[in-house]
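Researcher: I'd like a structural prediction for the single chain below. Treat it as a standalone chain; there are no partners to consider.
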Amino acid sequence: MAKKSLVIFTLLFASVLYSQRLIPYRKGNLWGYADSNGVMVIEPKYEYAGMEQCGLMLVKSHDKYGVIARDGSEVVAPAYQSTLFGCGSRYPSIIICRNPDGDYLFDRSGKFICKVDKVEQNHKSRYVVASKGKRIGLLSPTGSWRLRPTNLRLIRVTEGGGFISKGLFKTRYYNAAGRFKFSTRHRSSFDFYGGYSSITITKKTWRNIFKYSFRKYYGVESGKRVKPWERIKQVYHNLIDTNGRVLLPKGFNYEGMPRSGYVIGYGPLGRGLFDSLGNVLIEPVQRNINCDKNLICFVAKDTSRKFISFALGGKTEIPSQHKPNFNGKVYLVHSDNRSNLVDMSGKKLFEQDFDFIISGYDDSAFCAKRNDKLYWINEHGHVVLEADTHKYSTGFPFEKGQALVSKNGLYGMIDQVGQVIIPLKYYRLQRLLHDAYIIGTSPDRFNPVNGLMRLSGALLLDTVYRAIYLSNQKTHIIAANKDRLMGLYDLMGNRLLPEIYSNIVQWPDKFFTLQMPNPNYKYSENTNIDSIIGFQVDPDGKNLIRLPGNSGQKGYFLYNHIEKGWVRYDGKKFYED
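Model: Treating it as a single chain, here is the predicted structure.
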């Protein structure tokens, strides 16, 4: 038992060590790797060092690229003009090294697989699309051809992991294992989505071969004069599924919604709704169709844009001059500059219409106004709160039990019983966290002054900032001062980094890339020098590590970092040049 526990502990310890991604480390003009605490792991000896990806790193030596492992051993020696590899299930287990004479393929242990003229696609599949001569095929990780290089073009589709090959006369479809499924002579798109791929069909045909009767669609009911046996040239877009079956009837164009299993298509007289077998659910004579996620479809028959609700199996008249706003339970409709809510049967929830209704988020999420009075109403048609406009001129829907209100350009917050949470005194009021709001104290929108306040009234950040927002991973707060320089804070408002950076971007592994400008910048019309010095910082804001700079471009402001070395948040040197 003790031996088993020791093995488990060893594996967990190794897993923790491996999870600590190595960070590029520069000393002088050479690059190596350090851990997140700044401890040297691989001595600087490379001209370039890329970020670690699943235990492998791209490096450059003597102007050539190769791949090394975490222990510094060479997986692929630096001898190539470029090297490509990825990490995770979206990438094949192949390292692609490119030289002018072709592409060399290695497995992740560094074993040579084969050489091809060029790798066309190398992501999201265990197979690689590669060319030999002027033809393209599908290469397996062992170097054997799953599809021999006989195709003019071979494209991997997004859904299902299949492949599409383009020949002189046919488009062929293969599954994710490279097995042939079907071919078509129609012009086709190069992707499947919702189980379907778009195709373009061009044919010369007679008008009366449509699936629908000539009398209904081309005779008296349509009100059009047509030549019943006129031969015409048809060009239309349709959908095929992964078995090669054409979805819509002949002569009808695909328009949208394939991911839902239903398709909006349009023919000579208008739009209709079809199921996945091509059966008609709504006759294709409508001017406009909009369907929600519950497949309750609103159609406009003519230019008046009066909508009719088509539930699958029923029809309900709902007059509305605008596309109804869906929330899946009730619908917001507008007619003659008035608004109301209707249920799924088309019944109005309120006898008297409102001047306007704003849809929202919760059950009591609609805000309405009628005769200078504000109302908050729920999906059952009940008024849950009302307020005179001498208090508030405008209201907004409830979100998490709080509603924004305003008057004379100032904003405040009330709860679901009308009690004031935040008084009407701010020019800006916007939720940032679940219990914290950005408050603005300046009426000048070009020179805003913002802070961050809890609902209790306690300030998280003083009202001195030009902008406040969450990091892209929503784990930290980023604040910019009046000079547009940014600092980093945790979600409790504690400062981690001062406002001295021109940009802060969070990466998925919770490190930050920081860009620091030189205040004595210069402007250049044409240059190609490094313009920005990058850093990385761990989530607590303690460790800064410099990364390679980005190249400047014409017309950009250029910055040079004037301090040498790396600096911790506490001001101590992290490590020296």
